Amino acid sequence: MLNGVRVLDLTQYLSGPSCTLLLAGLGADVIKIEPGPVGDLCRLLPIAADGYSSYFVQQNRGKRSVCVDLDKSSSHELIAALAGECDVLIENFGHGVLTKRGLGPEELRAVNPRLIYVSISAFGRTGSKAHLPGYDLIGQAAAGSVALTGEPDGAPIAPGVPIADMSAGIMAFGAIGHALFARTVSGEGQFIDVSMVESVFQMHPFAVQGPSVTNGKARLKRSGRHFGSVPPAGTYAGPDGWLVLQVLDAQWPRLCQAAQSISLDADERFATARGRADHRHELVNTLEAWMQTFESNEALLAHFDAHRIPAAAVIDPADAHLDPWFEERGAIVTVEDPHFGPITMPGFPLHGSAIPDRDTEPLAPLLGQHNVEVLREVLGWDDERIDGLTNDGVLLSAPVVATD
Asked: Do residue 298 and residue 334 come from a single domain?
């Protein structure tokens, strides 16, 4: 789908690499510029073998690596030259880091007007907080998602997945696709500014507009394992494990039919959505006790399925391979990594008639593995020039040293 699109990837950790992983999966040629001497710092994250991280493998499959010493001006010229031959550049450096090196959007787009320059940061590149550093947890907290997660009388808790990093990466991915389409009409690239905070903040379907239209009365609060406003949606202890149930107004009659033995439809307290909200504790306790009368979670979920009730087991992601669905969809794959051997990890999440199934999973690059290949192919530089940059310490390819 993106064959022929060349992406210059100046990102590290997760927000940017998650975006370029999707681009690579759709066929783009992703050239990952890594700052020497260690490269993308997630190469050092556990679990590591011989200085090679499985975290890095998951996020950087199918990319090519060029490693440079960013403190040398010759590396800035090299990056600028590559940007002149690329369709997309994506970066997530700190505020002003690339601009100080002559690699900001204005400088590079002046040379290559067709370049789509994408910046991911915690608070965006404009506004009074543009200078602040930030990772996933900061993005989540500043966007309000942490405030709404946890027990009512407990501390705010961040979810167990990096929502800010990943949502910013997905936002950038979507924007890039549309910018490529717009370029087919205008012939021009553009600058795209993605913040982690806004990527999470726009996920609030009620928490912002609800208080606005009720003079602050309808303010969401932490409600623990149950959705306070739409019971009986929440997490339940089943016969042999946890499961979730999400029943809205449309499904309530079916739930009453499924749970005929406890006569939910005959209880006036639960007759309306407002009544169920007002008496949510009684409702969820009654339902949970009924659920535990089944032989197993499997039997309970089969019963829900027979009545078209939305429900699912709460799985441990480390056990996803035990559910055949994940393999059927390619949602879980095995990468035959030369350092670790077989690694199980999430597969490519997009499916479509123009997206071919993979026979084998691509590998992640070694540090600087494609220095020579990329400079020859993309810039047409000869071996003498490339060797000179290597000898001058501009191009690096030493393996990351393992750390305890």
From this structure: no
Chain-centroid distance, C-alpha 77: 31
292 & 353 share domain: no
Segment 24-39 mean pLDDT: 96
- How far is CA 186 from its chain centroid? 30
Q: Is 126 exposed, middle or buried (0-12, 13-18, 19+ CB in 10 A)?
A: exposed
Residues 101 and 149 reside in one and the same domain: yes
What are the pLDDT digits (tens) for 203-239? 999 999 999 999 999 899 999 999 877 899 999 999 9
* Residue 65 within a domain: yes
Contacts of range 270-278, beta carbons closer than 8 Å, 24 or more positions apart: 273/230, 273/249, 276/231, 276/232, 276/252, 277/228, 277/229, 277/230, 277/231
Q: What is the pLDDT of residues 121-170, one digit of tens each?
A: 999 999 999 999 999 999 999 999 999 999 999 999 999 999 999 999 99
What are the residue numbers of the active site?
165
Provide the domain limits for residue 289.
Answer: 234-314
CATH number at residue 191: 3.40.50.10540
Structure token pair of residue 374: 């990329």
- What is the per-residue burial (b if ≥16 Cβ within 10 Å, else e) of 261-274? eeebeebeebeeee
Residues in the chain: 404
Is 40 contained in some domain? Answer: yes
| Cα gap 197→137, rounded to integer Å | 10
Number of domains in the chain: 2
- pLDDT score of 402: 47
* pLDDT above 60: residue 279: yes
Domain match, 246 and 348 both: no
State the Cα–Cα distance between residues 275 and 297, nearest whole angstrom: 28
Q: Do 39 and 114 have their domain in common? A: yes
Which helix (H) or strand (E) covers residue 201, if one does?
helix 196-201
Q: Do 276 and 139 have their domain in common?
A: no
Q: Are 9 and 82 in contact (CB under 8 A)?
A: no
Q: Are 333 and 363 in contact (CB under 8 A)?
A: no
**Mean pLDDT for the stretch of residues 74-94:** 98
Residue 177, number of CB atoms within 10 A of its CB: 17
Do residues 268 and 357 share a domain?
A: no
pTM: 0.94
Residue type, 363: L
Q: What tokens appear for 174 in the block? A: 């979507």
Instruction: Determine the angle formed by the axes of helices 383-391 and 371-379, rounding to 10 degrees.
Output: 140
